[in-house]
Protein backbone atom coordinates (compact mmCIF):
# COMPACT_ATOMS: atom_id res chain seq x y z
CA UNK A 1 0.00 0.00 0.00
CA UNK A 2 3.04 2.28 0.24
CA UNK A 3 2.64 3.26 -3.43
CA UNK A 4 -1.12 3.70 -3.15
CA UNK A 5 -2.01 7.15 -4.41
CA UNK A 6 -4.68 8.87 -2.40
CA UNK A 7 -5.36 12.35 -1.11
CA UNK A 8 -6.33 10.74 2.18
CA UNK A 9 -4.68 8.41 4.61
CA UNK A 10 -6.53 5.20 3.86
CA UNK A 11 -8.92 4.38 6.67
CA UNK A 12 -8.47 7.81 8.25
CA UNK A 13 -11.30 9.44 10.15
CA UNK A 14 -11.42 12.48 7.81
CA UNK A 15 -11.56 10.15 4.81
CA UNK A 16 -14.65 8.49 6.28
CA UNK A 17 -16.33 11.78 7.25
CA UNK A 18 -15.74 13.21 3.77
CA UNK A 19 -17.79 10.26 2.45
CA UNK A 20 -20.48 10.31 5.14
CA UNK A 21 -21.09 14.03 4.50
CA UNK A 22 -21.01 13.33 0.72
CA UNK A 23 -23.85 10.81 1.03
CA UNK A 24 -25.91 13.31 3.07
CA UNK A 25 -25.14 16.26 0.76
CA UNK A 26 -26.11 14.34 -2.41
CA UNK A 27 -29.67 14.18 -1.10
CA UNK A 28 -29.91 17.55 0.66
CA UNK A 29 -28.24 19.62 -2.08
CA UNK A 30 -30.57 18.10 -4.68
CA UNK A 31 -33.55 18.86 -2.37
CA UNK A 32 -32.29 22.43 -1.83
CA UNK A 33 -32.07 23.12 -5.59
CA UNK A 34 -35.42 21.49 -6.27
CA UNK A 35 -37.27 23.33 -3.49
CA UNK A 36 -35.82 26.79 -4.18
CA UNK A 37 -35.81 26.76 -7.99
CA UNK A 38 -38.65 24.43 -9.01
CA UNK A 39 -41.20 24.39 -6.15
CA UNK A 40 -40.50 28.05 -5.31
CA UNK A 41 -38.84 30.41 -7.75
CA UNK A 42 -35.69 32.34 -6.99
CA UNK A 43 -37.09 35.64 -8.26
CA UNK A 44 -40.11 35.36 -5.94
CA UNK A 45 -38.04 35.14 -2.75
CA UNK A 46 -39.23 37.23 0.19
CA UNK A 47 -37.93 37.51 3.74
CA UNK A 48 -41.31 36.38 5.10
CA UNK A 49 -41.40 33.20 2.99
CA UNK A 50 -37.83 32.30 3.95
CA UNK A 51 -38.71 33.01 7.59
CA UNK A 52 -41.84 30.83 7.35
CA UNK A 53 -39.76 27.86 6.23
CA UNK A 54 -37.06 28.45 8.83
CA UNK A 55 -39.60 28.73 11.67
CA UNK A 56 -40.33 25.03 11.15
CA UNK A 57 -38.01 23.02 13.39
CA UNK A 58 -37.54 20.20 10.89
CA UNK A 59 -36.51 22.62 8.11
CA UNK A 60 -34.34 24.71 10.46
CA UNK A 61 -32.43 21.67 11.78
CA UNK A 62 -32.02 20.27 8.25
CA UNK A 63 -30.58 23.59 7.05
CA UNK A 64 -28.22 23.92 10.03
CA UNK A 65 -27.00 20.35 9.40
CA UNK A 66 -26.68 21.26 5.70
CA UNK A 67 -24.51 24.26 6.65
CA UNK A 68 -22.27 22.19 8.94
CA UNK A 69 -21.82 19.25 6.52
CA UNK A 70 -21.31 21.48 3.45
CA UNK A 71 -18.71 23.57 5.30
CA UNK A 72 -16.82 20.48 6.46
CA UNK A 73 -17.03 18.71 3.08
CA UNK A 74 -16.04 21.83 1.09
CA UNK A 75 -13.21 23.03 3.31
CA UNK A 76 -11.81 19.53 3.88
CA UNK A 77 -11.97 19.06 0.09
CA UNK A 78 -9.93 22.24 -0.42
CA UNK A 79 -7.41 21.04 2.18
CA UNK A 80 -7.06 17.67 0.41
CA UNK A 81 -6.67 19.39 -2.98
CA UNK A 82 -3.85 21.54 -1.59
CA UNK A 83 -2.11 18.49 -0.09
CA UNK A 84 -2.39 16.85 -3.53
CA UNK A 85 -0.39 19.66 -5.10
CA UNK A 86 2.33 19.26 -2.47
CA UNK A 87 1.39 21.43 0.49
CA UNK A 88 3.46 20.31 3.50
CA UNK A 89 5.32 21.32 6.65
CA UNK A 90 4.77 24.75 8.22
CA UNK A 91 2.79 25.98 5.21
CA UNK A 92 0.39 23.08 5.66
CA UNK A 93 -0.13 23.98 9.33
CA UNK A 94 -0.72 27.66 8.49
CA UNK A 95 -3.20 26.76 5.71
CA UNK A 96 -4.98 24.37 8.07
CA UNK A 97 -5.33 27.17 10.64
CA UNK A 98 -6.67 29.63 8.04
CA UNK A 99 -9.19 27.04 6.78
CA UNK A 100 -10.39 26.25 10.32
CA UNK A 101 -10.89 29.97 11.09
CA UNK A 102 -12.68 30.56 7.74
CA UNK A 103 -14.95 27.58 8.48
CA UNK A 104 -15.82 28.87 11.94
CA UNK A 105 -16.65 32.34 10.55
CA UNK A 106 -18.88 30.77 7.88
CA UNK A 107 -20.64 28.57 10.46
CA UNK A 108 -21.25 31.47 12.85
CA UNK A 109 -22.55 33.73 10.06
CA UNK A 110 -24.76 30.98 8.62
CA UNK A 111 -26.11 30.10 12.05
CA UNK A 112 -26.87 33.78 12.82
CA UNK A 113 -28.71 34.07 9.49
CA UNK A 114 -30.78 30.93 10.12
CA UNK A 115 -31.65 32.30 13.58
CA UNK A 116 -32.62 35.68 12.10
CA UNK A 117 -35.23 33.93 9.92
CA UNK A 118 -36.39 31.60 12.67
CA UNK A 119 -36.71 34.49 15.14
CA UNK A 120 -34.32 32.85 17.60
CA UNK A 121 -32.34 35.16 19.90
CA UNK A 122 -29.66 33.11 21.62
CA UNK A 123 -27.19 35.82 22.52
CA UNK A 124 -27.14 39.52 21.66
CA UNK A 125 -24.43 38.85 19.05
CA UNK A 126 -26.00 35.67 17.63
CA UNK B 1 -6.32 -5.45 -10.18
CA UNK B 2 -6.52 -6.32 -6.49
CA UNK B 3 -7.06 -3.72 -3.77
CA UNK B 4 -3.43 -3.93 -2.64
CA UNK B 5 -2.00 -3.04 -6.03
CA UNK B 6 -1.46 0.56 -6.98
CA UNK B 7 -2.48 2.27 -10.17
CA UNK B 8 0.12 4.71 -11.49
CA UNK B 9 -1.86 7.40 -13.24
CA UNK B 10 1.11 9.78 -13.44
CA UNK B 11 0.95 13.38 -12.27
CA UNK B 12 -2.54 14.73 -13.02
CA UNK B 13 -1.46 18.17 -11.83
CA UNK B 14 0.78 18.34 -14.93
CA UNK B 15 -1.93 19.63 -17.27
CA UNK B 16 0.51 19.55 -20.21
CA UNK B 17 -0.23 15.81 -20.28
CA UNK B 18 -3.96 16.34 -20.87
CA UNK B 19 -3.92 14.48 -24.20
CA UNK B 20 -2.89 11.31 -22.31
CA UNK B 21 -5.60 11.63 -19.66
CA UNK B 22 -8.02 8.72 -19.26
CA UNK B 23 -11.72 9.08 -18.41
CA UNK B 24 -10.98 8.55 -14.71
CA UNK B 25 -8.44 11.39 -14.73
CA UNK B 26 -10.90 13.75 -16.40
CA UNK B 27 -13.50 12.75 -13.80
CA UNK B 28 -10.97 13.59 -11.06
CA UNK B 29 -10.15 16.98 -12.63
CA UNK B 30 -13.84 17.87 -13.16
CA UNK B 31 -14.69 16.79 -9.63
CA UNK B 32 -11.94 19.01 -8.23
CA UNK B 33 -12.88 22.00 -10.41
CA UNK B 34 -16.59 21.74 -9.54
CA UNK B 35 -15.64 21.33 -5.86
CA UNK B 36 -13.67 24.62 -5.89
CA UNK B 37 -16.64 26.39 -7.54
CA UNK B 38 -19.12 24.97 -5.00
CA UNK B 39 -17.08 25.87 -1.92
CA UNK B 40 -16.50 29.37 -3.35
CA UNK B 41 -20.23 29.69 -3.93
CA UNK B 42 -21.01 28.47 -0.39
CA UNK B 43 -19.10 31.40 1.15
CA UNK B 44 -20.65 33.90 -1.31
CA UNK B 45 -24.14 32.45 -0.75
CA UNK B 46 -23.99 32.79 3.05
CA UNK B 47 -22.65 36.35 2.67
CA UNK B 48 -25.60 37.33 0.42
CA UNK B 49 -28.15 35.57 2.65
CA UNK B 50 -26.71 37.48 5.64
CA UNK B 51 -28.70 40.51 4.46
CA UNK B 52 -31.56 38.68 6.27
CA UNK B 53 -29.94 39.83 9.55
CA UNK B 54 -30.78 43.43 8.64
CA UNK B 55 -34.32 42.48 7.54
CA UNK B 56 -34.99 40.64 10.82
CA UNK B 57 -34.62 43.88 12.77
CA UNK B 58 -36.31 46.09 10.16
CA UNK B 59 -39.69 47.77 10.56
CA UNK B 60 -42.39 45.03 10.12
CA UNK B 61 -44.29 47.23 7.66
CA UNK B 62 -41.18 47.46 5.46
CA UNK B 63 -40.79 43.67 5.60
CA UNK B 64 -44.50 43.09 4.87
CA UNK B 65 -44.16 45.35 1.80
CA UNK B 66 -41.12 43.34 0.64
CA UNK B 67 -39.00 46.49 0.82
CA UNK B 68 -36.45 45.03 3.28
CA UNK B 69 -32.78 44.58 2.39
CA UNK B 70 -32.86 40.77 1.96
CA UNK B 71 -35.92 40.68 -0.32
CA UNK B 72 -34.64 43.61 -2.38
CA UNK B 73 -31.11 42.15 -2.66
CA UNK B 74 -32.33 38.77 -3.91
CA UNK B 75 -34.88 40.30 -6.27
CA UNK B 76 -32.33 42.72 -7.73
CA UNK B 77 -29.83 39.90 -8.29
CA UNK B 78 -32.50 37.66 -9.84
CA UNK B 79 -33.54 40.46 -12.23
CA UNK B 80 -30.10 40.37 -13.85
CA UNK B 81 -29.65 38.02 -16.82
CA UNK B 82 -25.99 37.46 -15.95
CA UNK B 83 -26.97 36.15 -12.49
CA UNK B 84 -29.51 33.74 -14.08
CA UNK B 85 -26.89 32.47 -16.52
CA UNK B 86 -24.41 32.00 -13.65
CA UNK B 87 -27.12 30.06 -11.77
CA UNK B 88 -27.49 27.69 -14.71
CA UNK B 89 -23.69 27.26 -14.57
CA UNK B 90 -23.93 26.60 -10.83
CA UNK B 91 -26.62 23.99 -11.47
CA UNK B 92 -24.38 22.27 -14.04
CA UNK B 93 -21.49 22.26 -11.57
CA UNK B 94 -23.65 20.97 -8.69
CA UNK B 95 -25.37 18.26 -10.75
CA UNK B 96 -22.07 16.96 -12.11
CA UNK B 97 -20.50 16.97 -8.61
CA UNK B 98 -23.53 15.09 -7.22
CA UNK B 99 -23.61 12.47 -10.01
CA UNK B 100 -19.86 11.96 -10.19
CA UNK B 101 -19.72 11.96 -6.37
CA UNK B 102 -22.34 9.19 -6.29
CA UNK B 103 -20.17 7.31 -8.79
CA UNK B 104 -17.11 7.81 -6.54
CA UNK B 105 -18.97 6.56 -3.45
CA UNK B 106 -20.05 3.45 -5.36
CA UNK B 107 -16.52 2.84 -6.65
CA UNK B 108 -15.23 3.26 -3.04
CA UNK B 109 -17.67 0.51 -2.07
CA UNK B 110 -16.30 -1.64 -4.91
CA UNK B 111 -19.41 -1.25 -7.05
CA UNK B 112 -18.96 -0.55 -10.76
CA UNK B 113 -15.16 -0.51 -10.74
CA UNK B 114 -15.14 -2.28 -14.10
CA UNK B 115 -17.49 0.22 -15.75
CA UNK B 116 -16.12 3.42 -14.21
CA UNK B 117 -15.35 4.94 -17.64
CA UNK B 118 -18.91 4.40 -18.84
CA UNK B 119 -20.39 5.73 -15.57
CA UNK B 120 -18.28 8.92 -15.98
CA UNK B 121 -19.69 9.46 -19.49
CA UNK B 122 -23.17 8.73 -18.12
CA UNK B 123 -22.60 11.43 -15.43
CA UNK B 124 -21.67 13.96 -18.14
CA UNK B 125 -24.64 13.12 -20.37
CA UNK B 126 -27.12 13.13 -17.48
CA UNK B 127 -25.72 16.47 -16.23
CA UNK B 128 -26.18 17.95 -19.71
CA UNK B 129 -29.74 16.65 -19.96
CA UNK B 130 -30.78 17.93 -16.50
CA UNK B 131 -29.22 21.35 -17.14
CA UNK B 132 -30.84 21.77 -20.57
CA UNK B 133 -34.23 20.71 -19.13
CA UNK B 134 -33.82 23.24 -16.28
CA UNK B 135 -32.93 26.27 -18.42
CA UNK B 136 -36.56 27.45 -18.91
CA UNK B 137 -37.20 27.35 -15.14
CA UNK B 138 -33.94 29.10 -14.34
CA UNK B 139 -34.52 31.89 -16.87
CA UNK B 140 -38.26 32.36 -16.15
CA UNK B 141 -39.36 35.96 -15.71
CA UNK B 142 -36.01 37.60 -16.44
CA UNK B 143 -35.93 40.40 -19.02
CA UNK B 144 -33.20 40.28 -21.62
UniProtKB/TrEMBL annotation, chain A:
It is found in: Membrane. One of its GO terms (molecular function) is metal ion binding. Keywords: Heme, Iron, Membrane, Metal-binding, Transmembrane, Transmembrane helix. Pfam families: Sdh_cyt. This is Succinate dehydrogenase. One of its GO terms (cellular component) is membrane. The chain crosses the membrane at residues 20-39, 59-82, 94-111. Its main location: membrane. InterPro entries: SQR/QFR_C/D, SuccDH_FuR_B_TM-su. Signal peptide: none annotated.
Amino acid sequence: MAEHYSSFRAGGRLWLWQRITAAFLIVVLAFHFFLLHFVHHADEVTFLMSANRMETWSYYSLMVLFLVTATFHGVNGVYNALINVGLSGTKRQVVKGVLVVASLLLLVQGFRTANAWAGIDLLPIL
Amino acid sequence: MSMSQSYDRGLIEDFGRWREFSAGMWAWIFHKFTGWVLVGYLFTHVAVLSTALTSASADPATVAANQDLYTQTIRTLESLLVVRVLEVGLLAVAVFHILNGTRLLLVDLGIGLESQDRSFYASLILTGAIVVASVPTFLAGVSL
